[in-house]
Amino acid sequence: MKWNHVVLVILGVWLIISPWILGYSALNLPSWNNVLMGALIIIFTLWNASTAKEQ
């Protein structure tokens, strides 16, 4: 996996866990937005990494 895929997966994980770390998990809409966007970033990054041809 290329370094940029690793960075995107880390950023996706940060989006998922940030509502609890930063203390705004009681706010439903921003929390769900972070969780869903983080999950989509991870899914699309892993999908792209698995279909990309290594150079």
Structure description:
This protein has 55 residues and is mostly helical. It has one domain. It is 80% helix and 0% strand. The chain has two helices and no strands. α1 packs antiparallel against α2. The relative contact order is 0.21.
Summary, kept brief:
The chain is mainly alpha-helical and 55 residues long. It has helices at 3-22, 28-51.
The shape, in one word, is elongated
Distance, first to last CA: 11 Å
**Tally of individual domains:** 1
Number of helices: 2
Q: Characterize the largest beta sheet: strand count, sense, and whether it forms a barrel.
A: none
E-strand count = 0
Query: Could you list the spans in which at least 5 consecutive residues all have pLDDT below 50?
Result: none
Helicity level, as a percent range? over 70%
Query: Could you state the oligomeric state of the chains shown?
Result: single chain
Describe the secondary-structure layout.
Blueprint (H helix, E strand, L loop, with lengths): L2 H20 L5 H24 L4
Using brief descriptors, characterize the structure shown.
elongated, mainly alpha, 55 residues, single chain, 0% strand
